[in-house]
Amino acid sequence: MQKTISTSPVVPIAVSLVKARPVTQVRGACPHDCPDTCALLTTVEGGIATKVHGNPDHPQTGGVLCNKVSRYTERTYHPERLLTPLKRCGPKGSGQFEAISWDAAFKDIASQLKTISARQPEAIVPYSYAGTMGLVQGEAMAGRFFNRLGASLLDRTICSSAGAEGLSQTLGGKVGMRVEFFAESKLIIIWGSNSIGSNLHFWRYAQQAKRDGAKLICIDPRKTETAEKCHEHIALLPGTDAALALTVMHELLAHDWLDHDYIARHTLGWAALKERAMLWSPERAAAVCGVPAEQIKNLARDYGQCLASKQPAAIRLNYGMQRVRGGGNATRAIACLPALIGAWKHRAGGLLLSSSGLFPVDSAALQRPDLLAGRTPRIINMSTIGDALLKETSSGFGPKIEALIVYNSNPVAVAPESGKVVQGFAREDLFTVVLEHFQTDTADYADYILPATTQLEHWDVHSSYGHTDVLLNRPAVAPLGQAKTNTQIFRELAAQMDFDDPCFADDDETLCRAAFGQQIDFNELLTKGFATLKLPEAPFAHGNFPTPSGQCEFFSQRLAAEGLDGLPDHVPNYELSGTSNTFPLAMISPPARNFLNSTFVNVKSLRDIEGEPILEIHADDAARRGITSGAVVNVFNQRGSYKVVAEVSKRARPGVVNGLGVWWRKLGLSGTNVNQLTSQHLTDMGRGPVFYDCLVEVRLA
Ligand code: SF4
Question: Which residues line ligand 1 (CB under 6 A)?
């Protein structure tokens, strides 16, 4: 039994009357790559975190966490948590390490980096992504370190860059509706997203709208948990979203379901887009998208009639649809739709892909690009790290990569075409340092592994890409074992490298304050844990898009100036369904519900729910190959193969298999995972990966 005995503005304090151990609840933020950015409350008893809850005071979280993060203490106190620095003592990739002191590790690493940087600092490459979304433990001190060093820059493209670029070219940035107003929408199109699995708190708003009479339509090749709960599911072929959007435009035109006044005042390039859309009859789109023409017509009718009835129509777009060759164009085509029916005039109308562009983050104050001191290092694209690691020095590429510092990422598991990624990481002449919580597939290839703190052990501050609140994360418990924060690791490495710039002395609270400067009331973050951005309810009701023209740009002069198509179009996949007899099935690799990218795969209770790596396959495709549920199958193409358990499932449409990811290679059935098959091709915009543009064949193992 516990009783609250006092409160402070910051931390409510309670005491267990049974054990007389102090009990605190510490406010934090979920650090994971998820649009919901939940507010956490961690219960701490006697210095141990015993439970992580959703903060009920934070409206976007509503006291609810997903299944993954509600088990956060299991992850934090995992018996395999890395608690001491490790040095490799076996062959590369063998996973054999011995403990070493921090002092010795820092000296060895700095010595290697000094030698390489004396020759060519660009031969050193940072590799990081959204293992934490925190602005401080992400790229703050790390950015300072690599800028001061003059290391190669990293093009952080692996998740969302095609969609971000498409959105930016159309709406002017990563901007859109406020998520809470979806609760008032009368039509919600959930496009390329399994909200129940990866945007749970948006789904609560959609459910509210549904209870109030809204129609929900899901557009997704896979019949996800979300698709099952919508009124309608449009199971299009992967990579055909632009064709579908252009055909919706065709139908809006054909039936004059258009807000002529909004189009005239607040858009650019309508005459040209109209001509493009007229090329997309429902019959043509039906053949391309693999869905009935009637279903496309009905989608357009539902959308267009919201104009006639003056009801708000909203699109929740997510990044799944942009992981194909034409991902940027698809995003552009979809982002044009709300302007056509004037949906932006309603606060519950419009579109949301990402809200991250709304946050006034002062990245320069955090990462200090001025430390480059006029140098302009080459840029390495993280989505083609396999190829990059295998390149020799050349005038086009620059120096061969000699050192890789990996933090907040697990590229051996998550980067495409992992056969090449592994080959690169296995290079004996590559010096690799990995900052991690666990000995991941990537850490197996390290020369040094440095134990990093988790979100319960450090300060951080967070923006969001699914709502419009800033959140502060306070440390709930002391660092476990000898773990250090990312910031502290880069601080101490900087000292070993003799970088004496005063900015390396900034502590983490100072960095948290610098992230938003005066734009956010830091005292509000300290007392409440979150602060809501002050934004208009319907930001584009009167235009004012953050594009160069201030209009919704159907035609992008910026793209045209680059020699690209200024209008959105359907760009067929590199690996197009129906074009190969050898590899006749399209494969997508959406996340397994209990994993988040490759995080949580080693949390036993979550892996037990997932069981084994699964390939969902339609009954017709399975029957043709003699495959039944539970059979172990080989999935393969020209790049490699991996073994999975087949599940004959209505979640898979004919011609498309779903390889759920992202399993750690060493925890799968054959030491590889789905990325053994994905390619290093890049998207039409944003230089992103094309994970869902991949043809395969499946055979009984
Ligand atoms: S992963 Fe997403 S839903 Fe789960 S706790 Fe974190 S922010 Fe919330």
Answer: 30, 32, 34, 36-38, 65-66, 68-69, 200, 596
pLDDT at 15: 41
- Residues 100 and 103: their CA atoms lie apart, in Å, by 8
Measured between alpha carbons, how far is 42 from 54 in angstroms, rounded to an integer?
9
Q: What is the DSSP string of 552-587?
A: EESS-HHHHHTTS-SS------SS-TTS-SSS-EEE
**Mean pLDDT rounded to a whole number for the chain:** 95
Q: Which two tokens stand for residue 499?
A: 């970088």
Tokens 């777009």 found at:
317
Residue among 30, 202, 530 to mutate when testing ligand 1 (max atoms within 8 A of CB): 30
Percent of the chain with pLDDT over 90: 96
Sign of CA dihedral 247, 253, 258, 263: positive
Q: In a 10 Å sphere around its CB, with 0-12 CB exposed, 13-18 middle and 19+ buried, how is residue 461 labelled?
A: buried
- Asked if residue 385 lies in contact with residue 157, where contact means CB atoms within 8 angstroms, the answer is no
Q: Which of 42, 67, 68 to mutate to test the pocket of ligand 1 (most atoms within 8 A of CB)?
A: 68
Sign of CA dihedral 188, 233, 584, 633: positive
Q: Give 385: exposed, middle or buried? Use CB within 10 Å, 0-12, 13-18, 19+.
A: buried
Distances from the Cα of 20 to the Cα of 17, 49, 51, 52, angstroms: 5, 16, 18, 21
DSSP string of 311-349? --EEEEE-GGGGSSTTHHHHHHHHHHHHHHTTGGGSTT-
Q: Which of the four pLDDT bands, split at 50, 70 and 90, describes residue 20? A: low
Q: Dihedral of the CA atoms 208, 214, 215, 220 (nearest 10)?
A: -40
The mean pLDDT of 248-266, rounded to a whole number, is: 98
Residue-wise DSSP of 136-164: TTTTHHHHHHHHHHTPPEEE--TTTHHHH
Say how far apart CA 634 and CA 645 lie, in whole Å.
Answer: 9
- The per-residue pLDDT for range 609-664, each reduced to its tens digit, is 999 999 999 999 999 999 999 999 999 999 999 999 999 999 999 999 999 989 99
Determine if the peptide bond prior to 11 is cis (ω within 30°).
Answer: no
8 Å CB contact between 102 and 499: no
Tell me the best of 36, 595, 597 to mutate to test the pocket of ligand 1, counting ligand atoms within 8 Å of each CB and taking the most: 36
Interacting residues of 149 by C-beta distance below 8 A, sequence separation 6+: 113, 117, 121, 124, 497, 499
CA of 157 to the centre of ligand 1 (A): 22
Who's near 426: CB < 8 A, 6+ residues apart? Answer: 92, 93, 445
* Band (428; pLDDT cuts 50, 70, 90): very high
Instruction: Band the pLDDT of 167: cuts 50, 70, 90.
Output: very high
Contact of 465 with 78, CB cutoff 8 Å: no
Distance CA 360, CA 216 (A): 33
What average pLDDT does the segment 534-559 reach?
Answer: 97
Q: Which amino acid is at 109?
A: I
At 497-518, the pLDDT tens digits run 999 999 999 999 999 999 999 9
Joined together, the tokens standing for residue 67 give 């299944």
| Contact by Cβ (8 Å): 202, 466 | yes
Question: If you take atom 7 of ligand 1, which residue's CA is the nearest one?
Answer: 37
CA of 307: how far to CAs of 14, 311, 663, in Å?
Answer: 54, 6, 44
Residue 191 pairs in a beta bridge with: 219, 317
